[in-house]
Design goal:
Elements lengths: L16 H5 L1 H19 L5 H16 L10 E3 L5 E3 L23 E10 L4 E18 L3 E10 L5 E10 L6 H22 L8 E2 L2 E5 L8 E6 L5 E3 L13 H13 L4 E4 L2 E3 L2 E2 L3 E4 L16 H11 L4 H5 L36
Parallel strand pairs: 7-13
Antiparallel strand pairs: 1-2, 3-4, 3-8, 4-5, 5-6, 6-9, 8-9, 10-12, 11-14, 12-13
Length: about 350
């Protein structure tokens, strides 16, 4: 079986061309198309967004592109050339294993942005990154590149990482920060889940941002450690559940709903084994706006209702004493100390604008 990283993209999940060609990959894309139409019918997305995302999914399904590529190159301060992020179509994806070495790969200076969930604040430090082109995988919203990261104070000691750059070079910068915050808070809930000693513990890969100062408009990209193994998507943010489902991922989603007093739900669970990446969070309107984590996949109350409709409690849900979602007469039995303040405060002034 081919090795994949399990590194997805927000709202879409990363699938290599080979994975998309499998029956399971096709079924998942068809399910996404169905969910996308429901979102349009429910007025959660506009007609323009629907058409754009539908085109991306069909391209994944058929392995085609609908627009002619006009990718250009730009010369950096050091004289090396890099593919420009401004192009009509993304570069061609070449699925492959991580490079044995980054020798000869261009090094570029950048800022490393790290989010602290306890304070709800961001900090940054200078770093150097080598991004191996072309991308090895693509999702509906992101292209994935292998990279080597070296922090100037050695807090990130190198090794193989995955850099996720938007397919859309004009994507709102706040989206990147929100994605990392969501994954960071998901990791906090994973630690709380593990505190109940379930049969299998879960984790989310620690994620952070790079601001690529040497590139036009100083683009941002999400970065996380490369995880080798078979990638699998367990559920999505609008009712999809993998036909060969395991108990742990679904129980974790249910746990987050109960442990937050039904104020949020972590879903779109995907990754390698029980090490997950690229989750989404649905939040209720009862949460303060500053803590609502308005990611692209946050469908609010409708997303929560959809989970309640399709979720089937399993032995781990019962072990955790999660109240059955289909019973309105039972009270919450899982002890919880969740407060909205646990999600921090997120002043938008923290987020840097493009150069």
């Amino acid at each position: 079986m081919a090795t994949s990283s399990g590194h997805g993209s927000s709202g879409g999940g990363t699938a290599t061309a080979a994975a998309a060609a499998t029956a399971g990959g096709k079924a998942e894309i068809l399910e996404k198309l169905k969910s996308l139409k429901e979102l349009l019918d429910q007025d959660y997305i506009t007609g323009t967004e629907y058409n754009e995302r539908k085109e991306q999914l069909i391209n994944q399904l058929t392995g085609t592109q609908t627009r002619k590529s006009t990718t250009t190159t730009t010369r950096t301060r050091s004289g090396s050339t890099l593919s420009s992020l401004i192009s009509d179509t993304p570069p061609k994806v070449e699925p492959r294993a991580p490079p044995a070495s980054f020798e000869g790969v261009h090094s570029e200076h950048c800022k490393l942005w790290v989010f602290d969930p306890d304070s709800g604040k961001w900090s940054n430090e200078p770093a150097t990154v080598q991004i191996f082109e072309p991308p090895f995988a693509r999702g509906a919203l992101r292209l994935c590149y292998y990279c080597n990261l070296i922090s100037n104070n050695n807090t990130k000691p190198g090794g193989v990482y995955v850099a996720k750059l938007s397919v859309d070079p004009y994507e709102e910068r706040l989206t990147y920060f929100t994605d990392i915050e969501i994954q960071t808070y998901a990791k906090v809930f994973a630690d709380r889940f593990n505190g109940y000693n379930p049969p299998k513990k879960v984790d989310f890969i620690k994620a952070f941002l790079l601001e690529l100062d040497e590139r036009p408009r100083s683009p941002l990209c999400g970065v996380e450690k490369f995880i080798s193994g078979e990638y699998r998507k367990h559920n999505n943010n609008f009712g999809y559940v993998n036909d060969e489902e395991r108990n742990t991922p679904q129980a974790f989603s249910h746990f987050t709903y109960e442990a937050s007093n039904h104020q949020l739900l972590i879903c779109d669970i995907q990754g390698v084994g029980d090490v997950y990446t690229d989750p989404q969070i649905h939040t209720t309107e009862s949460l303060p706006l500053s803590t609502r984590l308005q990611g692209k996949g946050n469908l609010g109350t409708r997303g929560l209702q959809k989970f309640e409709e399709v979720h089937q409690c399993n032995p781990i849900c019962r072990y955790l004493k999660c109240a059955p979602l289909h019973s309105r007469t039972l009270r919450l039995t899982l002890p919880t100390d969740f407060r909205p303040s646990m999600l921090g405060r997120r002043p938008t002034a923290q987020y840097p604008q493009s150069a």
